[in-house]
Amino acid sequence: MQPEPVYDAPRYRPPTAVEKMRRHNRVIFSEGRRIIIQKAGGMIKARYEGSSNFVFGDNPMHAAKRLHFWE
Question: Hey, what's the torsion of the CAs at 58, 64, 69, 71, to 10 degrees?
Answer without folding.
Answer: 120
